[in-house]
């Protein structure tokens, strides 16, 4: 190991695919991934183009036809002020599919930076930050979010920041353990011998090599972010009216289910359930493909 | 031990910042935008929010430890009785959920591991995982529709009639505990399953089988006992999720527990109530973690005998 190997060993198998292609084909073979991807893409399409194919305006009320059960005219019935539930479910994917991915993105960026720093420097920085992060992770996200949102006021930006920052420690932990293994390898030592800055070594040398665990963790977190955003919206601390958001619709209609108006909440609940399960299937597929 | 204390300290600082520093002028918030500035100052002085932050924090924590949780902005009366009542109610709900989920979850994991990769294992593992990732209010709504609205087996609200006996209360608590059950079932079953798989594959299991012990004895004496150790830790860490779930479930079922107390306080910006509620569940969580550590050491002979490594 005295000489630094600069060329990769010649490959006998000329048909050998690049690692990226390998992962891609492995994903395309995974049934869980494809089913999950189909569900997620369906909701993304609804979020992007929903209002073009929704039969009614999701915000238009029609008091005379309020609380109508499902019929050929209103497939999913109407809510308490006569809005078409089917159209609302279709367009209701928009806000949650904006807020949750942005929160996940923030969590990934912040968590990756923290994980690289703690994993690379170790020592006191690592000890202190890790302990604080561990302690922080023990607090339920809903509680942290509730407290922060009450103090800061409700807005989409607050929800994104609060959920993003609460998830960052979890991503940081994953990145840190990947970095700990990575920093013992020769290419890191080589970079240090070249007197590359710590910043360069972390973000240019190590980061590309720890992308797979970050990718897995990000898809898993997206599922939890959807969970958290939906829950906060249901509690009234997330997405605000008049958005046709699913959690919000459930919170404004569930008071009446004792009267048998099941259609005002069931379809929204099933929509959230399908999206969360879809994202988790995708996460499961990505995890499987990257850990082969 | 030390970790849960750090968590508690961190939580108290967050609660303090969130409840007393970030919202700004408390007197103004209570009295409204049109109140006289002198009245606002006077109220701030009475509430003690015009003192240095460190003093405020110290007084607040010291009072909390002595059981003085402050005065509710909304009810204009001491917070402590509300919190204690609510905590009792939440404990009942959590107890029902735990009593159901711990044995059934462990059983599910054991059964899945003994039928590894067969259909029964797939159903338990995939089903458990799917319900675990769903928000509690989603499973809650679907369960209310099925058991409360369509079948009419169970009441849709957890508010039982006055002076209800033990069994009536239990009857009212079954439906609210089911969403918590579903969330926890997946985690516990998965841990028990992987613990079982590991234990089944171990040398001591092979020894037990080879020395001719009956299969049943091998499973219960040797495999399950060892498989349960990691499961206990998971059950303890799930207390945090359980508490987060309580906030949602108690709101959904209109149950007067600590979760709905926090929710109502948050809605009404009743900061003393909110702070005390959150700090109280922080303490509950810390205690649960300690109990789990203790149980783990009691059940794990390697730690119990105090051998070094």
From TrEMBL, chain A:
The record describes its membrane topology as: Multi-pass membrane protein
Query: What does the entry give for GO biological process?
Result: transmembrane transport
Q: Which domain of life is it from?
A: Bacteria
Under Pfam families, the record lists:
BPD_transp_1, OppC_N
Note whether Membrane occurs among the keywords: yes
PANTHER family annotated for this entry?
OLIGOPEPTIDE TRANSPORT SYSTEM PERMEASE PROTEIN APPC, PEPTIDE ABC TRANSPORTER PERMEASE PROTEIN
Report the protein name in the record. ABC transporter permease
Organism equals: Mesorhizobium jarvisii
């Amino acid at each position: 190991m005295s000489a630094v190997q600069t060329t990769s060993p010649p490959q006998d198998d000329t048909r050998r695919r690049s690692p990226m292609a390998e992962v891609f084909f492995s994903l395309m073979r995974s049934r869980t991934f494809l089913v999950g991807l189909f569900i997620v893409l369906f909701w993304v399409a609804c979020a992007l183009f929903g209002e073009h194919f929704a039969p009614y305006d999701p915000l238009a009320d029609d008091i005379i036809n309020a609380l109508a059960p499902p019929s050929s005219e209103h497939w999913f019935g109407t809510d308490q002020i006569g809005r078409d539930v089917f159209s609302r479910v279709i367009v209701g994917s928009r806000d949650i599919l904006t807020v949750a991915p942005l929160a996940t993105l923030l969590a990934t960026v912040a968590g990756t930076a923290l994980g690289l720093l703690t994993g690379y420097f170790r020592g006191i920085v690592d000890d202190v930050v890790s302990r604080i992060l561990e302690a922080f992770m023990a607090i339920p996200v809903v509680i942290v979010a509730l407290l922060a949102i009450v103090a800061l006021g409700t807005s989409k930006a607050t929800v994104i920041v609060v959920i993003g920052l609460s998830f960052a420690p979890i991503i940081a932990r994953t990145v840190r353990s990947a970095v700990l293994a990575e920093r013992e390898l020769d290419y890191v030592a080589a970079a240090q011998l070249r007197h590359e800055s710590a910043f360069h070594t972390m973000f240019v040398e190590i980061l590309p090599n720890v992308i797979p665990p970050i990718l897995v963790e990000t898809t898993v977190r997206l599922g939890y972010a959807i969970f958290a955003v939906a829950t906060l919206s249901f509690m009234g601390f997330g997405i605000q009216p008049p958005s046709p958001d699913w959690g919000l619709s459930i919170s404004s209609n569930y008071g009446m289910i004792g009267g048998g108006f099941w259609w005002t909440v069931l379809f929204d609940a099933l929509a959230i359930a399908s999206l969360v399960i879809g994202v988790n299937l995708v996460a499961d597929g990505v995890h499987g493909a990257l850990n082969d | 031990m030390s970790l849960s204390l750090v968590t508690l300290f961190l939580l108290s600082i967050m609660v303090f910042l969130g409840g007393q520093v970030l919202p700004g002028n408390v007197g103004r918030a209570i009295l409204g935008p049109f109140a006289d500035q002198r009245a606002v100052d006077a109220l701030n002085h009475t509430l003690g929010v015009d003192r240095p932050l460190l003093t405020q924090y110290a007084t607040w924590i010291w009072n909390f430890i002595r059981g003085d949780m402050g005065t509710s902005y909304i009810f204009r009366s001491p917070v402590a009785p509300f919190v204690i009542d609510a905590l009792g109610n939440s404990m009942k709900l959590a107890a029902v959920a735990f009593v159901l989920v711990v044995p059934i979850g462990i059983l599910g994991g054991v059964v899945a591991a003994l039928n590894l990769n067969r259909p029964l294992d797939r159903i338990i593992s995939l089903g458990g995982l799917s319900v675990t990732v769903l928000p509690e209010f989603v499973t809650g709504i679907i369960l209310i529709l099925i058991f409360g609205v369509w079948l009419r087996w169970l009441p849709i609200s957890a508010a039982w009639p006055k002076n209800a006996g033990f069994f009536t209360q239990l009857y009212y608590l079954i439906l609210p505990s089911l969403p918590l059950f579903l969330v926890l079932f997946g985690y516990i079953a998965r841990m028990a399953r992987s613990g079982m798989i590991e234990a089944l594959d171990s040398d001591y299991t092979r020894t037990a089988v080879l020395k001719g012990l009956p299969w049943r004895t091998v499973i219960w004496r040797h495999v399950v006992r060892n498989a349960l150790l990691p499961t206990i830790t998971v059950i303890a860490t799930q207390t945090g999720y359980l508490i987060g779930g309580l906030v949602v479930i108690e709101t959904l079922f209109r149950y007067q527990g600590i979760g709905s107390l926090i929710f109502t306080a948050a809605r009404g910006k009743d900061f003393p109530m909110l702070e005390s509620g959150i700090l109280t569940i922080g303490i509950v969580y810390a205690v649960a973690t300690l109990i789990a550590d203790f149980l783990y050491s009691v059940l794990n002979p390697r730690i119990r005998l105090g051998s070094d490594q």
